[in-house]
UniProtKB/TrEMBL annotation, chains A, B, C, D:
SUPFAM superfamilies: HybD-like. This is Germination protease. The keyword Ribosomal protein does not apply. Autoproteolytically processed. The inactive tetrameric zymogen termed p46 autoprocesses to a smaller form termed p41, which is active only during spore germination. The lineage of its organism: Bacteria, Bacillati, Bacillota, Bacilli, Bacillales.
Length: 365, 365, 365, 365
């Protein structure tokens, strides 16, 4: 049935990936792209990357001007509730900072929009998060005196996807926003990743708005300060990856692995180590990539291709065979539930000063 | 948690009930209320009542001017799939007639609105029905040439309820309608009944629009031709009943039962019947109601109260005790699923000439 | 469809109701039924009734010999999370006591059985509770050294209902128990109540075992120490009530209400009170019941019937009319979710010494 | 939380894959493995492979003696309801044949077992299928006279998985079977595939029984004629695939793609074709595989590895990096629902002579 095959778009919405792709193409300028400022930070067990892009940077790396904050938090993947709690805390404080930076007053009205399709689990992060967001706007409207200090009016909607409603998702949100007139909007969405290890691990916050279903159809309009007239923050988590990416990432790992093996085999230290014995799993890094001659030896012509060319080749091969699946880890149900929990706790704590990520469980529905 | 206790309003949205309540108060005019035309019909095993109310009728019985069609279809209650199929057929053809009566062209664009709360099963008829409605609008927009004849553009939304979104439900719909500009709207909602035996059995179709959450809050606005500028059809099914109604209905049955027993005990025919033996379950009717003297004898003062006074007394007793529950049959999950199926099949067949209720299963999602 | 209409049996499984029914019939012996010991206690905001029945008591009130503990906890009904937490605490400590009383060792193996039908929400208390129970048995079996102190081996199953599996539920449990050989069994089930105000408010714990689907079919076997050879504890919560009970309870309230009104109308204090003004909602009690002459005046013959005769009359009237529904409050989804949470937290804390009801949330799934 | 991370085992349960793996290792004997008979058939749009393995074959390819029937049906993947209907039809008649072959009488009692974890969508094929199976055993037991001809007694259970129940799944089934004493058992389970294109497309039927959670733990016992004393049929559908398989399959496709490109570039016919223009997507086959010299040129050392060595290398690289995910297509929810529908319709039609796959929809729940 055609109405059900809602397109789940392959979006490179992660600014860190756009940066990496640019760097990959232009290796000389690695640490210094004009118009793009990058800063890393470690907060407890959460790594953070801040990317600020100005108009010039936008032209270079093709990513909209604005601030992007990326959290790497593996608590969901590892099913570690303490780490998930930390992630909610750090996410909340980063979002709070971003609201402040945009001068969003503490008592202003927020609209949380859960993008995506309820019926496709890996695309349901938006609706699943919104379901746990503390909604207070009606309490302010109907019984203002009963609302305690430390809360702001918050509304939350799940507009669905075009394949389910038949209506352009942006139009639904524009219509609601015109009647409701929020002071700011936060949109939550599931993303596709260009890297296997970012799936269910990376949370990106930005102040640049979002395209529901972007990339696929230019006619669709973006949700942003420009179109809605109020600040629009986007929260995105990669939940799917395509077979091209999986294969391409794996080929890179094979090159690094063989590169390191080759390099290590002549090391004196290594000669003392019994064969097959390695000390811990030292992570493979770019330093392990072998030179071109060895790349050719290990992986032939394919080994010498640029990232871009390699992906194009893989896509060319997989697509006609019907193999270029978009996939998600088999534990998708639990991952989505836990990630929605992290996002909702973070949203509640960032928006209401009386809520902290630690007591947020009491406020989630 | 206050955000969750969404009010499920006791609405007397059934025109047949308004008529009955009026008749009850003014017994002389039983068959002849000025401004209210009533007509009954039998279609296969489905009983139908057509009530047309004009401006004068609206003043008398307090029900909005317009046409109301009521189907009595017990296929869902009896879990009889064949009867459910008949109900879908009759519902489809009645709705089709009503669309024609309002000159809705075959290729005009429809918006189906599923009112109610996904998280409260007996209030979820709207969302559950909409989930099975064939949505085609995006196909017309994106790939017009591929849509076969016999279909019209249809969109479908589930705006949620104020306790979940924080936003007045009418405002969400007004906002969407202003952007989407449908040619007609069909709203589906669960209702409360004033009679036990109408629950999950009665389907009302009207052309008068609907108040989401009506009765509770006057500030909330109605969805109707007046507010939306296009015809608004409402489809409603009673799914809950309150304890006052259950008790009041039962007291009436007790009176009728005792009345008939009294009347029958002196009948010669009866004296020949062995005690306790009755021929089938002859349904109790208004003719079984005893006279005032016997009502007093059977049920004391309570037996002589008018319908209205009796319900007031019961409410006065139950409410402070916290007993005035709104209840639903325990088989609510299956009933709602089957009724949503009947409604969705009927909507699809009424809106698309290529679909009949019989092949509608292939089109439901 | 016949396979789906699983019978949801009207069980009077609450010992307090059996006691009340007996007392009602034999008013002289109100406080003193031979073989039945009753003791009340108040624990924070939870009222408790302990009923101990010996062989003689079993003959009198028709309730199996053993201990019954009843908690009255309105936290679920009132959607008060603090009260729900208290209820879980008290439930846990009462169940712990009962395990001790039966000399169940701290490291013995438990089997939790969630009775009832997943597909019928008000009957799903067993499966919904079991889903949140901490299951540890496989950890002990597969990786014994990793299990911390303070936990015991616990397994949990949801055998379904005969209408869904086609197999006698007891047989499924007997089969599993013979292979698994637990040291004790705890069965959780939804019950029907004989009183409106006990629905979703009363938790009964007993050491007498349970009949899955009892009352309906004598061929079905009971789960008990006698049949399983190990202690069988039963946890039951009334989640449904029938229309007969609702009506009968309401008629009683009407009598009490009118009785009190009559009594109060001549009181001097009352004459000073403006009409219609009452000071708070004083709860109606048995003392408000009027004498026979007034009962007749208020409610005729019906007013003078015994509890038993009144219910028989109502049943006789409602059943042929198809009105004797088994119903559940419309908020069934939320009530069941919260009650399952209370039960699961209590079970976890009662079975594992490292878990308290307060930290139990971290252990629920 | 450790109780939730139920292992979803990588099983090579498909006999066609075992055969292929064997053939791959021993290329000389391609069409002729001693003790293994292979026969292909085309039934409408469904391709079928029959593999019969005797004791000698079992030793060679490591797959249990018995009959394996494999259907390739892409109706679910392509969301084509007509193709799904065909698949259900062919599946039903093949299973019916297998029941006949084992002399299962038409009125004997069947037990359908839905293996897998309800809470992990891609592992829920068993429970989802069983939910739609027509259960009749209780009707035969309780009201024998009302069951029409053309039906047999069927029961159905979903034993859960060890991570959820804490009990060895085989033990649950052995316990139930000892009490219920079925004449035959059909077990339905989700499998892992060694090939991307078999996911959600291949249905394997066998008469060899099944290991719940097999491969992982030798202590777990198999469900088979040997252990249960009655014929045990297994129905399996691959629903997940690991990253090693995706990468390995892709590398094969790259080799074939480059092999064909190389071969075609010198063909005269091709020189007349404008560059980039190809006629349809001719599927890549084993004939496109280049010779060793070209394999080395295209993909270096990796290109010359055997299937087995290549997979070992990839696994060695991916596992320490945490990249060796087991994944499922993002449309998992819809795929599982449709496949469960196909399986349940097929089971119903195979077991009850009054049901055909075409009218089976009326019997599914």
């Amino acid at each position: 049935m055609t109405v059900e095959d809602e397109l789940f778009n392959v979006r490179t919405d992660l600014a860190v990936e756009s940066r990496d792709m640019y760097v990959e193409k232009d290796k000389e300028n690695k640490q210094d792209i004009k118009g793009v400022t990058v800063r890393d930070k470690q907060e407890r067990d959460i790594a953070l990357t801040y990317i600020d892009i100005n108009a010039e940077g936008e032209k270079r790396i093709g990513k909209k001007e604005g601030s992007y904050i990326t959290l790497y938090a593996d608590g969901v993947k590892k099913q570690d509730t303490q780490k998930q709690q930390n992630a909610a805390n750090v996410f909340a404080s980063e979002l709070k900072e971003l609201l402040k930076k945009h001068h969003v007053p503490a008592d202003s009205t927020g609209l949380v929009v859960g993008l995506g399709n309820w019926n496709i689990t890996p695309d349901a992060l938006g609706p699943m998060s919104v379901e746990k967001v503390l909604v207070t706007n009606h309490l302010f409207e109907l019984e203002h005196e009963t609302v305690s200090d430390g809360y702001r009016p918050v509304a939350a909607v799940t507009p669905g996807v075009m394949g389910v409603t038949g209506i352009e998702t942006s139009n639904i949100i524009f219509g609601i926003a015109e009647k409701f007139k929020p002071d700011f909007v936060i949109a939550v969405d599931a993303l596709a990743s260009r890297s296997v290890d970012r799936v269910n691990e990376t949370i990106q916050i930005s102040d640049t708005g979002i395209h529901p279903g972007s990339g696929v159809d230019n006619k669709r309009k973006e949700l942003s300060q420009e179109t809605l007239g109020v600040p629009v923050f986007a929260v995105g988590v990669p939940t799917v990856v395509d077979a091209v990416t999986i294969t391409s990432d794996t080929i890179d790992l094979i090159l690094k692995h063989l590169g390191r093996e080759w390099r290590d085999k002549d090391r004196p230290a290594n000669s003392l180590t019994p064969a097959g014995l390695t000390f811990g799993h030292k992570e493979l890094t770019d330093d392990d990539l072998p030179d071109d001659e060895k790349r050719k030896r290990f992986l032939g012509i394919v080994g010498t291709l640029s990232e871009q060319d390699k992906k194009s080749l893989i896509e060319e091969v997989l697509t006609p065979a019907g193999y270029n699946l978009m996939v998600t880890p088999k534990e998708v149900d639990g991952f989505m539930r836990d990630m929605a929990d992290v996002i909702a706790k973070g949203l509640n704590a960032a928006m209401h000063s009386s809520i902290t990520a630690d007591n947020a469980a009491d406020y989630s529905r």
